[in-house]
Every structure is written in structure tokens, then in C-alpha cells.
Specification:
With 479 residues, the chain is mainly beta. It is 5% helix and 33% strand. It is built from 4 helices and 29 strands. Strand 17 and strand 18 form a beta hairpin. The longest helix is centred in the C-terminal third of the chain and has 10 residues. The chain is globular.
């Protein structure tokens, strides 16, 4: 694990949960149409402990003009009811002409399906949805784990640019890459004939980039002509990069001083050994399930040294081709150890104005332990050199917080992670477990579920799902 020497970086956070007492929440759309519920999708899967339900939400870059936004949710085909949406509780949703799409095939047994939908709100100023919906894509997934989820547009693209309104989306490996009971599906993240373990790049609007793209097989979206596997026989043309386990968080690192340094970043959850931050390259193979981090992943899911000839055969279907590919390695990784974590969370290159000390820093969390680190973005770019041993140094970040509910009031205290902060909030809000709920290895049980988010001005927030509280980052020292 690459580490820096500084341990004095501190973020100051303030709780923002008081917004609930000053604002009224209105249900815009309810996806949960399970038996006994009034939501839209009868087959929505919400099994506790898995990444399912509503997994992704993103506004179209031209939302203020067209009212379009995109969602990804997970369905279990075995659940009762139709896979068509139900608007009985949402009469503003016009389903005239709505049809589902054939699921994109995935080798092996199947558990769930990821569904990408385009919504068009005819009145975005209203607090409830009024408009239409259109299913764009449906993807088969082997298990409940590592589903289809996050999606993003390039925030620097402008009207007329090749990347304008071009959607990037992640699809997890569906638990295939670590399967011991069904060895045949371990290669799914490497196989180019399916979308598991991939970053996908498509044009949702059929009227956009018509001269530089082709229409998809299902006729619902377009595929850019410069996608890397457009001419590879048998390969899914939607693929932009591949070889991931659970690339569940996408973000764009935008360098306002040098646009040439703008990069798509993927934070991917590892198996037993490494959590990684990856700079995404067109057509890149990120190794899984033959690599984890910068090590060889063996058939028994243990890791070892890289082979002397560090290349992976290109695989489209069941058989390998004669083409050998050098894997693309992460620029940051940390281990499943006490001062590391189990599952990397979201991360962002800070470009806000409120905290100048954070400019040029990429900040990210570990979900379970609540640890926070930063790396200098210039170090991440330097580590993107094709060498598996080159990593950007990461520096621990502590948190300064004043518990508003402690008695007697102890004032502001410095915490090594978000875990104790989330634990305090959990108990204040009525949590009955002695520690935080959830599965985790490094913490020996319990998880902070800590992640970063950004507002429209690029300012940072820390939210912890375990206590349901959002906290604003209001200061920083020691960076």
C-alpha cells in the first residue's frame, strides 16, 4: 500500500441533518412496487446487504432544456408481477408506448437484471414527475452482488463536442469473477461478449451524434463510432473499458488549470486484498478476474506475484484469441488491513472555492471503516505510467467534529475515521445494536457506510448511511 508520511490532515465537518425540520420532502417517484407497495416496479429487488434497488441517478447535461434524466435499478425476474412499470400511484407518468427491451445476455446462471431508463419530465419545476419514460437497456447479472449502477456524463463536454450527452455507465461483474462453485463464469469480466465487469459508453438520445454513431441492436440508443471494440467480431460494441470487479463509483477529475489532465476515474471494490482507484483508458483491460490490484489473482482467490510475461489473452467468447493485452493497473490501492478497509467508497478531485487547501487533492473514503484519505492529483497522473508498481502516495485524513448530542458537551474532537461519528449518530437516532449494523471484515463487524458527495458548487459533503446523516465539510488543515 502506497502511503504518505503526513498524518496531520484534518477535515472539519458540520451536521446538516437539520434540513429535515425546515424543508418538506415530496415523493417524486417511488420505484418500490413490491407486493404491498405502491411504487412503479413490481420486480424491484431490495435484498438487504446487496447493491440493489435504485442504484444510479443522473441528470442529462441539457436537463434544463429537455427535462431528461437517467436511472439504473435492479430487478429480480423471479419476483411476481410484470416487468412493465405501474403508474397507478403516479398518474403523471405517461406509459403510452412503453415497452421493455430484450436482456443483454450474460454467460452462466442468472439472478438479477440491471435496467437503464430515460425519463423525460415535461415540467421540471414541479415537485412530482409528469412525463414519459423509455427503457434503454436491460442487462443480465449472475448474482445479487456487484450489479449495474453508477452513471455519469462528461461535465466538461459542451454542445458540439464529441462527448456531449454521451453516457458512461458501470456494470459490476455480478459476482462472477470470484465464483468457486461455477469456474466457467470467472472469465465474464474478461469476455467481451457480455457487459459484466465493464465500463459502458453510449448515446441515450437517438437524435444526437447521428453522423458519428450507430444505432444499438435494440434500437433504443446509439453507440459512438470511436468505441474501442466496435469492429471486434462478437464483442459488445458498448464497451469502453473492461476487467473490473465492482467499479461502483464513477467521477470525472476536472483540472481547471489544464483540461488535458481531465480523466474519468473509477473506484472499484476488491475481493480479499486490494481496493483501487483507476484512471480509465479507452479499451483498457483492468485485469480482473486474472488480477486483483497489482497482483495475480489465482483460481482459489488468493493473490501472488505477477507473471514474468504480464499479458492476458484477449477473450471474446469461450475461447482465448491470439491477441495478448498488457493490463492497465490502478494509480491508488490500499489493503484489507487494520489501517485500510474493506470497500472503497466515492472520491472526488476538489474544485470548490470554500476550502482552498483542498484544491488539487483527490479525497476518498472506505465504506466500512469510514477511513478517509487524499492523494495529490498530480501524483495520480504520474502513477498512470503503465507500471504495476507505481502508485500515488495516499495520506490519512482525520475528522474534527463536535457531537451535538453528547452530554456533558465535550466540544470538538478529532476522530481517526467516520466510524465513531456514524456510531454516535446511529445510537442518537434510536439504533439498538451495540455497534453499527452491517457486514465488514476489517472492523470485525459493523460498517460506517461513509461516502463523499459534491454539491452544484463543487463543495464536499460526507454522508454515512448507517446513521442517515449528511455532514458538510467546512474546513481543512494540514493539507
Amino acid at each position: 500500500m502506497a502511503r504518505g508520511a503526513s498524518l496531520s490532515a484534518i477535515l472539519t465537518v458540520l451536521c446538516t441533518s437539520s434540513i429535515r425540520t425546515t424543508k418538506k420532502f415530496t415523493v417524486y417517484l417511488d420505484f418500490n412496487g413490491n407486493e404491498g407497495r405502491k411504487g412503479i416496479f413490481h420486480r424491484l429487488t431490495i435484498v438487504n446487504g446487496y447493491g440493489n434497488g435504485l442504484n444510479g441517478f443522473y441528470l442529462d447535461p441539457d436537463y434544463t432544456r429537455n427535462g431528461k434524466f437517467y436511472t439504473v435499478h435492479i430487478e429480480d425476474p423471479a419476483l411476481p408481477g410484470s416487468n412493465l412499470p405501474d403508474n397507478s400511484a403516479f398518474p403523471g407518468l405517461n406509459l403510452s408506448g412503453y415497452t421493455t427491451t430484450p436482456a443483454i445476455k450474460t454467460p452462466g446462471p442468472l439472478q438479477n437484471e440491471g435496467v437503464l431508463i430515460e425519463w423525460t419530465d415535461s415540467n421540471p419545476s414541479n415537485s412530482t414527475f409528469e412525463g414519459t419514460a423509455r427503457e434503454l437497456m436491460r442487462v443480465q447479472l449472475n448474482t445479487r452482488a456487484h450489479p449495474m449502477g453508477d452513471l455519469i456524463f462528461n461535465p466538461t463536454a459542451r454542445r458540439g463536442d464529441p462527448d456531449w450527452r454521451v453516457l458512461y455507465m458501470e456494470v459490476g461483474d455480478g459476482g462472477s469473477g470470484e465464483s468457486l462453485s461455477i469456474p466457467a463464469i470467472r472469465s465474464n469480466p474478461q469476455r467481451l461478449d457480455n457487459l459484466e465487469g465493464k465500463i459502458v459508453r453510449i448515446i441515450p438520445d437517438l437524435n444526437e451524434h447521428t453522423a458519428t454513431s450507430t444505432v444499438s441492436e435494440n434500437g433504443r440508443y446509439r453507440i459512438p463510432n470511436d468505441n474501442p471494440f466496435l469492429s471486434t467480431p462478437g464483442a459488445r460494441k458498448e464497451i469502453w473499458a473492461y476487467g473490473f470487479r465492482n467499479p461502483h463509483r464513477l467521477n470525472w477529475a476536472v483540472d481547471p488549470d489544464n483540461p488535458a489532465n481531465n480523466r474519468l476515474i473509477v473506484n472499484s471494490v476488491g475481493l480479499h486484498t486490494w481496493e483501487t482507484v483507476n484512471i480509465v483508458h479507452k479499451g483498457g483491460n483492468y485485469g480482473y478476474a486474472q488480477r486483483e490490484g497489482n497482483e495475480l489473482l489465482k483460481p482459489d482467490n488468493t493473490t501472488g506475484p505477477l507473471p514474468q510475461n504480464d499479458k492476458i489473452p484477449l477473450q471474446v467468447g469461450d475461447d482465448f484469441t491470439d491477441t495478448l493485452v498488457v493490463p492497465t493497473y490502478a494509480v491508488i490501492q490500499y489493503g484489507h488491513v487494520e489501517n485500510g478497509g474493506d470497500a472503497i467508497g466515492s472520491g472526488f478531485l476538489y474544485n470548490g472555492k470554500a476550502i482552498p487547501a483542498l484544491r488539487g487533492k483527490y479525497l476518498f473514503t472506505d465504506i466500512t471503516t469510514g477511513h478517509i484519505w487524499y492523494a495529490n492529483y498530480k501524483d495520480m497522473l504520474a502513477a498512470d505510467d503503465g507500471k504495476p508498481g507505481t502508485m500515488a502516495a495516499i495520506h490519512q485524513v482525520k475528522v474534527l467534529w463536535d457531537d451535538p448530542n453528547d452530554s456533558p458537551n465535550a466540544g470538538k474532537k478529532v476522530y481517526d475515521s467516520m466510524f465513531s461519528i456514524a456510531e454516535a449518530g446511529y445510537h442518537t437516532r434510536g439504533g439498538t445494536n451495540p455497534r453499527l449494523p452491517g457486514r465488514a471484515t476489517v472492523t470485525k463487524g459493523g460498517r460506517a457506510d461513509a461516502r463523499f458527495s459534491l454539491d452544484a458548487n463543487g463543495e464536499l459533503y460526507l454522508y454515512t448511511k448507517s446513521d442517515g446523516i449528511i455532514r458538510a465539510v467546512v474546513g481543512a488543515t494540514g493539507f
